[in-house]
Amino acid sequence: MVQTEKSPETLAIYLACLRNGFVFVPVNTAYRAEETAYIMEDAKPAFCVADPARLTSLSEITSNLGVPVMSLDSAGQGAFADAAAGLTTVPSPERCQDEDLAAILYTSGTTGRPKGAMLSHRNLASNGMALTEAWRFTGEDVLLHALPIFHVHGLFIACSCALLAGARMIWLPKFSVGDVLAHLSRSTVFMGVPTYYVRLLERTDFTAASAAHMRLFTSGSAPLLSETFDAFTARTGMAIVERYGMTETGINTSNPYDGERRAGTVGFPLAGVEIRIADDEDTPLPPDAVGGLQVRGPNVFSGYWRRPERSTAEFAKGGWFKTGDVARVDTGGYVHLVGRSKDLIISGGYNVYPKEIEILINKLRGVEEAAVIGVPHADFGEVAVAIVTPQPGAKLDPDTIVAEVREKLANYKAPKKAYIVNSLPRNVMGKVQKNLLRETYKNSFQEEAAR
Ligand code: MLC
Ligand code: AMP
Asked: Closest ligand to 245 CA?
C-alpha cells in the first residue's frame, strides 16, 4: 500500500510491483487517518510506503496489524529510498499470468464504505494497449502529466499510454494552471478532468498559440459541458477527445481520434470492449433507448477484494458489469451518458458518495438526519451540499457541521455548504426525495460563479 505525494519514485514503486508480482494499492493523499485505516484493515497489505507526514497517524494501525512501513517524501527521499539505494542486485521479473492480480484500487460505494476493485495484469495491459492505439501514441509524444497518481486516470490511463509507447512525460506534482501553461509548448498530449479545462479557459493567456505544439487533449472522469468543449475549440481550434471510464474497468469508450468528436458524448467502445444498454432485468435495449450501461471485455475487473457477494451482484449473466451509469447509444453508435442510477456526486473529477457523509453527519450531536446532494458548481462541475434536520430542541450551526466533517473526511468530500431545515421532503415510501432537494438548492453557488 502506497500513500505518498506524487513523485517519479512512486511511479517506480508501481512499476516494480508489476514487475515482481506484488499487488499495488495506491491511496489518496487527501484521506484522513480514519479513511486510510479502513483501507489498510481491508487490504491488509504486506508492506506500506507512506509520506513522512503520515507516519505518526498511521503508526497505531500499522503496528496493530503488524504492517511494516517505510517513508518516502515528495522529493523521493526517505527510509524507503535509502533501502532501495542499498540494493546491490535487481531481482529478475516474476512470470505473472494474465489473471494475476496487479492492483487494488479502492472506490467508495453507495453503502458508504470503500471497496477494493481487483485489477489484473490483463485488465491493465489490454486497456493500455487499446488506448495507445486509439489515441495514436508514439515514442515521439510528450505527455504533460498533471493528474494525481492514486486513481486510474493518472496512474493507468495516462502512464500506460506513455510507457507502452516509450513516450516521455513531464511530471507535474499536481495540477496548477500556471505550470500547465508553462509546459504546453514542450508537450504533445494533455489529459485532464473537466475542471482543468475550465481553469485553462479562464486564463486569457491560454490561446491557440499555447496549444500549437499539442496534438491531443483528452477529458474524462466527469461530464465535460458542451460549453467547455465549444469554448475550447473556439479558443484553440482543437476538439477535446472526451472518453468514459471507471475504476473497475479503465476506459470503456472514447470519441474518435479520426472522425467527429461529438460534444456531450463519450464516443465509441474501445477495441475489444463491448457495451450494451439494458433494462432493470438486464435485457438489452435497442439503439436510442435509455437504460443501464453494461460493459464486458478484457478491461473489466474480476470483483471486489474480500467481497464475493458484492462482486456477484454487480454482474449480469454473461459477464456483463453493471456500471450504474445510465446511457443511450445513438443510431450513429455514439454513447451518451444521461445520468447515474447510483447516488454519486462527481466533484472536480473525484467521486463523493453521499452515504459516507450522511452516516458521519447523522452521528453528530443534535442531528436528526442529513441528506447530502450534488449541486452545480462552475469550477468543480458539482459539489456536495448537506441538508440537515435537528433533533427536537437542538440548535445546529451549519459551519460547525462542515468543520466536523472535514476533521474526519478528505476535504474534497466535505459539503461546501450546509443548510439547517425543519424537515426533509419524503415520498409515500418515506424515502427522502433528493430530486426535490437538488431543485431547491441548485443555485447555491450561482453568486460565486457570477463574481
Ligand atoms: C480540491 N478541493 C475540492 C476538490 N479538489 N473540492 C471539491 N472537489 C474537488 N475535486 C478542495 C480542497 O479540499 C480545498 O478546500 C479547496 O478545494 C482548494 O484545494 P486545492 O488543493 O487548491 O485544489 P486544487 O489543487 O486546485 O484541486 C482541484 C483539482 C483536483 C481539480 C486540481 O481536485 C484534481 O486534480 N482532481 C482530479 C481528480 C482525478 O484525478 N480524478 C480521476 C478519478 S479516476 P479547502 O476548503 O480546504 O480550501 C475516474 C475514472 C475515469 O474517475 O474515468 O477517469
Ligand atoms: P470512478 O469510480 O472514480 O472510477 O468513477 C467512475 C465514474 O465516473 C463513472 O461511472 C461515470 O459515472 C463517471 N465518468 C467517467 N468519465 C465520464 C465522462 N466522460 N462523463 C461523465 N461521467 C464520467
From this structure: 1
Residues 83 and 183 in one domain: yes
Strand partners, 118: 104, 303
283 Cα: distance to centroid of ligand 2 (angstroms): 23
Residue where a domain terminates, one of 305, 339, 373: 339
Give the DSSP letter string of 115-159. Answer: EEEEEEHHHHHHHHHHHHHHTT--TT-EEEE-S-SSSHIIIIIIH
Q: 183: domain CATH number?
A: 3.40.50.12780
How much distance in Å is there from the Cα of 251 to the middle of ligand 2?
10
Give the HSE-up count for residue 362: Cα atoms under 13 Å, Cβ half-sphere: 11
| pTM of the predicted model over 0.70 | yes
Collapsing DSSP states into helix, strand and coil, what is residue 67? coil
Residue 381 CA from chain centroid, whole number: 14
Q: Are residues 13 and 140 in the same domain?
A: yes
**Spatial CB neighbours of 366, under 8 Å, sequence gap ≥ 6:** 390, 391, 394, 395, 396
Q: Which atom of ligand 1 is nearest to the CA of 380?
A: 8
CATH number of residue 389's parent domain: 3.30.300.30
CA dihedral of residues 14, 19, 22, 24 (deg, nearest 10): 20
Which element (helix H / strand E) includes 107? strand 101-107
Report residue 19 as a C-alpha cell.
514487475
Which atom of ligand 2 has the smallest separation from the CA of 247?
4
Would you say the CB of residue 148 lies under 6 angstroms from ligand 2?
Answer: no
Length of the chain: 451
Contact 50, 10 (CB under 8 A): no
**220 close to ligand 1 (CB < 6 Angstrom):** yes
Angle in degrees, CA 299, 301, 305, rounded to 5: 160
Q: Is 235 in the pocket of ligand 2 (CB under 6 A)?
A: no
Distance 446 CA to ligand 1 centre (A): 20
- 26 CB within 6 A, ligand 1: no
Query: Consecutive sets of 10 residues in the chain, 451 residues long: mean pLDDT of each?
Result: 97 97 97 94 97 92 94 96 91 94 90 90 98 98 98 98 98 98 98 98 97 98 97 98 98 98 98 97 97 98 90 92 97 96 94 95 97 97 98 97 96 97 93 95 80 50
User: How many Å lie between the centroid of ligand 1 and the Cα of residue 412?
Assistant: 6
Domain hosting residue 299, numbered range: 2-339
